[in-house]
Each structure stands twice: as C-alpha cells, then as structure tokens.
Amino acid sequence: MSVDRIRVGNVEIIAVEDTPFQFPWKTPFPSIDYAEIEKYKHLYPDSYGDGAMLTHAGTYVLRSEGKTILCDTGLGPGPTAMLGGVVGKLLDNLAAAGVPADSVDVVAHTHLHVDHVGWNVNADGQPNFPNARYLAPQEDWDLMSSNLAAFPYMDQVIPLKDDGRLDIYSGEQTVTSELTLIPSPGHTPGHHSLMVSSSGERAIIMGDMAHHPSQVDQIEWCTAFDLDQARVIESRRKLFDRVEADGLISAFCHFPQPFGKLVRLDGKRVFQAL
Asked: Whole-number mean pLDDT of the chain?
C-alpha cells in the first residue's frame, strides 16, 4: 500500500493506492519505440519492470472546509483478468489512512474510465461510500452510459444516477471554495483536473493527463487509452506549461510517486517527486 500526505494551505491531500499492476509496453504505447521510452528509465526507475510498465491505480483524498472528498475510486475489487488477476484494496487502504468509507462526503471523478470508478458500488449495486454525493463529467456520461457494449463497467456509475446520488457536471465545477474541477479534455471527452487553491498555495490532481512520467516531456506520446489524441496533446501543452510556470504541486493517478513538480532538467521537462 502506498499512502502519502501533504498540506496545501488549509487542505490536506492523502494519496491512497487501490492496487499496483503492470502490462507490456505495447499495451499503452503501441506506436512508440521502446528504445525512446527507455531513455527516461534513469529518471523514473520505479515505472519500469522487466519488459513491462509498472504502474498503479491511485486515488486522492482531500479534506477541505470540513468535508472529505475522494478523487476517483480506482480499479475495483477484482480480480481483473486482463491485468493478471490483480485485486484492489482501496476500502482497506482508505481505512488504514484514517478515511473510513462512510466519512466521504463527495466522490469527484476526473473521468469515467474503468480504473477510476471501480469502487463506486458493491456487488449489489449499493454505494461503497454511503454518505457521499458523486460527481461525473457530462461528456463522459453522455458517451459511456449510452454505449454499454463498449463501456460495460458503467455498471459502477449508472446505479448512482438511478438512485439520485450522481450529479452530472460540465465545465468548471466548484467542489468547495478551495477545490475546483477544471476541463482538461482529450483522454476522454469530459476529462477534468482538480485544482486546489488555499491560503496562497496551489496544487493540481491531473488524473490521466499522463500515464507515464516520460509524457510530461513527450506530450505527443499518446496511449491507446486516449480517445482524442489531438485534443489531449493540446490539453497537455496548455496545462503542463501553466503548471510548470506557476510551480504547482502536481499529482497523477498512475505515477509511482504521488506528488511532485514539473521542472526543467538537462533540457527536459521532468516530474520531480517531492
């Protein structure tokens, strides 16, 4: 289990892992020569296995203005056959981090891919976070809820809509006065990032704007999971330039180190862990 905590102004942010996993490089990066990817191995050794990309399904807990907000809910309990039968432990790991499931007030989704909604509901379709409102981006809802053949895991989202727990949002969405979901589309049509701004300090959780740390430099490297490659490249260009220029603390759901900054090193933009 990976748990780490920082404070940004008055906001506490806790990184909580659901499950680690790995897959062959050609799965996420079918069009990128591995020799090019390997050039970043010395910077990010924890993202490289023996012929495989090491990663995890990560989530973030934020405590703001007396509320507990969970950003994304990981891959789910599993076992997940396509990833070698991995099982998730998010609920146990949250409890170990001092965040019991019934203490969560809001579940804020950056987007609605399978590894970000996996613990929304239990096997009976009941919410795993029984006291929470759930937030989901409109554009993802429109695409995925209408095509269950392509997105069967929406059974983790649709029951929440049916029982009135799901709020669909579009554009910028205020969660608290310190937390705002901002559009960063392309990976999915409704992908958002969660901006934290409190007492003059700022951070941003960027979901799946990048899956591997090399992409903060190689913004044109797209994965097989990016639904609109041209759009996600433009989103990365704008957001990464802003994050680097402003010195924001950064977080991504699949990086091995939960918090860092985008800085320059030997002519490359790198993710430098805190």
From this structure: 96
Give 174-198 pLDDT, tens digit per residue: 999 999 999 999 999 999 999 999 9
Residue 192 · residue 137 · CB < 8 Å: yes
Which residues make beta-bridge pairs with 147?
none
CA–CA gap between residue 96 and residue 172 (Å, rounded) = 32
Which amino acid is present at 190? G
Rg (CA), the chain: 17
Q: Using 50, 70 and 90 to split pLDDT, how confident is the model at 1?
A: very low
Each domain of the chain, given as residue ranges in start order, spans: 3-199
- 3-199: CATH, from 3.60.15.10, 3.40.50.300, 3.40.50.720, 3.40.1160.10: 3.60.15.10
In this structure, are residues 259 and 274 in contact, taking their beta carbons and an 8 Å threshold? yes
At residue 31, the pLDDT reads 94
pTM of the model: 0.96
Residue by residue, DSSP assigns 39-102 as GGTTT-GGGB-SSEEEEEEEEEEEEETTEEEEE---S-S--BGGGTSB---HHHHHHHTT--GG
